[in-house]
Write a structure and sequence with these properties.
alpha+beta, 12 strands, six-stranded antiparallel beta sheet, six-stranded mixed beta sheet
Length: about 190
């Protein structure tokens, strides 16, 4: 009986040590997964515009979670048979003014060396926000090809402990994913 009690005590101590580490890993996975799916949807929309040889928009809408997908009309309606992703749960798109988000300085310095436009986070976490891709896959804003870098923030509005992800959409239409702790510097991860 004593051996059983000692064994159970050791098991409980090891479990108490492992659970926080496991939770951190799980939350990091959720953040990376949400940022990856968001980035993949941006890429898919761009490729659809090129494949169809017409304008196609990336659209994000809030509801029970966030839905991102394609819109041929660039309105507030997804394509009926178009691809969509639901980003819900712990990690979701956040507005650029969310408390605790790291500053954009690190990303701007590495991407434009203070010589060009910095990041535009106005579409991040905005309902019915669209990114318009033309038939060449270039980003259009107001009918003109955009030279801005767009950033979409992913994280938890209620729990800053696990940090944030930033999906950066470059003018060429390619995406990058950055990570940053609450209030800390950004680092590129892909």
């Amino acid at each position: 009986m004593v051996e059983l009690v000692v064994s159970m005590t050791i098991l409980l101590i090891l479990t108490a040590i492992a659970i926080p580490s496991l939770m951190r890993s799980f939350r990091a996975y959720q953040l990376n997964d949400a940022a990856g799916r968001f980035s993949d949807m941006l890429k898919f929309t761009r490729f659809e515009a090129v494949r169809r040889n017409t304008q196609v928009c990336f659209l994000q809408q809030s509801g029970p979670g966030w839905t991102v997908g394609t819109s041929s009309t660039c309105g507030a309606v997804f394509d009926a048979n178009g691809k969509r992703q639901v980003i819900a749960g712990f990690a979701s798109p956040l507005p650029a003014n969310t408390a605790g988000l790291p500053g954009q300085g690190t990303i701007c310095n590495k991407l434009v060396n203070n010589s060009g436009p910095c990041l535009n986070g106005t579409l991040s976490g905005t309902n019915n926000a669209t990114v318009q891709f033309d038939a060449r896959g270039a980003i259009r804003v107001g009918g003109n090809v955009s030279s801005n870098l767009f950033v979409f923030y992913i994280g938890s509005a209620n729990d800053q402990e696990f940090g944030y992800r930033a999906v950066v959409l470059l003018p060429s239409g390619t995406t990058q994913i950055w990570t940053g702790p609450a209030g800390g510097p950004w680092q590129q991860i892909s």
